[in-house]
Amino acid sequence: MIPRYSRPDMVAIWSPQTKFRIWYEIEAHACDAQAELGVIPKASAEAVWKARDVEFDVDRIDEIERTTKHDVIAFLTHLAEIIGNEEARFVHQGMTSSDVLDTTFNVQLVRAADILLADMDGLLEALKRRALEHRDTIRIGRSHGIHAEPTTMGLTFARFHAEMKRNRERLETARKEIATGAISGAVGTFANIDPAVEAHVCEKLGLAPEPISTQVIPRDRHAAFFAALGVVASSIENVATEIRHMQRTEVLEAEEFFSKGQKGSSAMPHKRNPVLTENLTGLARLVRMTVVPAMENVALWHERDISHSSVERNIGPDATVTLDFALARLTQVIDRLVIYPDNMIANMNRFRGLVHSQRVLLALTQKGVSREDAYRLVQRNAMKVWEQGADFMEELKADAEVTAALSPAEIEDKFDLGYHTRHVDTIFARVFGDG
Amino acid sequence: MIPRYSRPDMVAIWSPQTKFRIWYEIEAHACDAQAELGVIPKASAEAVWKARDVEFDVDRIDEIERTTKHDVIAFLTHLAEIIGNEEARFVHQGMTSSDVLDTTFNVQLVRAADILLADMDGLLEALKRRALEHRDTIRIGRSHGIHAEPTTMGLTFARFHAEMKRNRERLETARKEIATGAISGAVGTFANIDPAVEAHVCEKLGLAPEPISTQVIPRDRHAAFFAALGVVASSIENVATEIRHMQRTEVLEAEEFFSKGQKGSSAMPHKRNPVLTENLTGLARLVRMTVVPAMENVALWHERDISHSSVERNIGPDATVTLDFALARLTQVIDRLVIYPDNMIANMNRFRGLVHSQRVLLALTQKGVSREDAYRLVQRNAMKVWEQGADFMEELKADAEVTAALSPAEIEDKFDLGYHTRHVDTIFARVFGDG
Amino acid sequence: MIPRYSRPDMVAIWSPQTKFRIWYEIEAHACDAQAELGVIPKASAEAVWKARDVEFDVDRIDEIERTTKHDVIAFLTHLAEIIGNEEARFVHQGMTSSDVLDTTFNVQLVRAADILLADMDGLLEALKRRALEHRDTIRIGRSHGIHAEPTTMGLTFARFHAEMKRNRERLETARKEIATGAISGAVGTFANIDPAVEAHVCEKLGLAPEPISTQVIPRDRHAAFFAALGVVASSIENVATEIRHMQRTEVLEAEEFFSKGQKGSSAMPHKRNPVLTENLTGLARLVRMTVVPAMENVALWHERDISHSSVERNIGPDATVTLDFALARLTQVIDRLVIYPDNMIANMNRFRGLVHSQRVLLALTQKGVSREDAYRLVQRNAMKVWEQGADFMEELKADAEVTAALSPAEIEDKFDLGYHTRHVDTIFARVFGDG
Amino acid sequence: MIPRYSRPDMVAIWSPQTKFRIWYEIEAHACDAQAELGVIPKASAEAVWKARDVEFDVDRIDEIERTTKHDVIAFLTHLAEIIGNEEARFVHQGMTSSDVLDTTFNVQLVRAADILLADMDGLLEALKRRALEHRDTIRIGRSHGIHAEPTTMGLTFARFHAEMKRNRERLETARKEIATGAISGAVGTFANIDPAVEAHVCEKLGLAPEPISTQVIPRDRHAAFFAALGVVASSIENVATEIRHMQRTEVLEAEEFFSKGQKGSSAMPHKRNPVLTENLTGLARLVRMTVVPAMENVALWHERDISHSSVERNIGPDATVTLDFALARLTQVIDRLVIYPDNMIANMNRFRGLVHSQRVLLALTQKGVSREDAYRLVQRNAMKVWEQGADFMEELKADAEVTAALSPAEIEDKFDLGYHTRHVDTIFARVFGDG
Question: What domains are defined for chain C?
Answer without folding.
Answer: 1-93 (1.10.275.10), 96-192+204-350 (1.20.200.10), 354-414 (1.10.40.30)
